[in-house]
Every structure is written in structure tokens, then in C-alpha cells.
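USER: Please consider what follows.
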Amino acid sequence: GAMADNSTFDDALKFAISREEEAVAFYNKAADLVKNAGSATMCKEFATEEEKHVTLLQNARQKHSVDAVGKRPLPPSMELTHYLVAEDITDSSTPQDVMILAMQKEDKAVAMYSDLLASGQASELDAVFQSLVNMEKEHRERLEAEYEKHFMPDN
């Protein structure tokens, strides 16, 4: 769309901040919807970690948006809306729905930060993007393990 034509790294940071804020709300709600106590604790822990991601990105943005990196254009192929997950959880979502959606959201987060990193055009932000990739990957792995524990029949 029109947004992709002139999106900058600052737009990407703003977008990432809003995604992380949504992730906080998502995991807080998820904690109420998953029936298992261990899963609920994990979701609450993730909500706290996503709050730290918000702070990390806000700090990066305050530091960099005023100087060159924030104004740099994103690679033309990078469409920010591509990193959105269309669905959201509702009060009628099953614990299984919640876990599947959480994994999809983490996949998109990993992809977004990996692509920002791979662009090679914002080296000042590489450390931030790399630590976010690592943390979201860890969430994804823990979600998968939890999912297999509760929803996959024993082989």
C-alpha cells in the first residue's frame, strides 16, 4: 500500500512498539483463558517481558529517531502490515486457540525483527533487534513445548 512506499525505520519502531503493547494485552488476556496453571504463569511472565520490549524499543526510538537512522527508508520489499496476525483472542477462545495464536504472533515478531536486522541499514539498532529476535524465539520455543505438553497426544 501507500505506507510501504515511504516507511522509515522510525515507522518500523513505532509499529513494533504498538505490536509489543498489543502482545502485553494479549498475554494478560491469554493468562485468563488458558486453563492450565503452568500455562497461565508462563503467559503472565511473557506479558512482563513484552512490557520490557516496549521500553527497549521506546528508548531506541528516543535515541535514534532524531538522527539519521530513523529517517532511513525501509527496504522496499518490507511491508509492515505483513507482520500482523489478523485474528485475536476472544472470551470464547479455547486454550488451544490461544496457544496457536500466540505461536503465530511470536513467529511474526521473530520475522519482523530478523528482517529489520537483515536489512543491514540500521546497524545502530542491530543490538536491539538481535536481542528481540532472541527473546521472541525463546517465547516461541516455550509456547511450542507447552502446546505439545497439553494438546499433542502422546506418540
Summary: The mean pLDDT is 91. Helices lie at 2-5, 9-33, 37-64, 68-71, 95-118, 126-151. The chain is about 70% helix and 0% strand. The two ends are 46 Å apart (CA to CA).
